[in-house]
Amino acid sequence: MSPPSDDEDALFDALESESDPALAPYRAQRLQQLSSELTRAKQLRNEDHGACSEIRDEKALMEIVTGTKWSVVHFFKDGFWRCGIMDGHLE
User: Fold this and answer.
1) Separation between Cα atoms, residue 82 and residue 60, nearest integer Å
2) Could you give the CA distance from residue 35 to residue 29 in angstroms, rounded to a whole number?
3) In angstroms, rounded to a whole number, what is the distance separating the alpha carbons of residues 40 and 5?
4) Pick from 2-6, 12-16, 63-67, 73-77: least confident
5) Is 53 helix (H, G, I), strand (E, B) or coil?
6) pTM attached to this predicted model
7) Which of 39, 49, 58, 64 could pair with 44 as two cysteines, CB 3.0-4.6 Å apart?
């Protein structure tokens, strides 16, 4: 597992530095929630979620699309300028 980034460290430091005892249970719950969300985001990045890649094989495309809850498929045609614009935005 990679070390937390500076932004993550700053967020956790700010949450942990609050001194109001009435907020302690909420702070602990939120720290746990943030930690879980960051772990999940890192796991998804390690599995190439959010990556843009060209897939030419229909069978491979179907395996990827059916193997995940969410996916975006952009059908690209060479020479069609609007496809180039969309491809640029996705990358």
Assistant:
1) 25
2) 10
3) 15
4) 2-6
5) coil
6) 0.46
7) 49
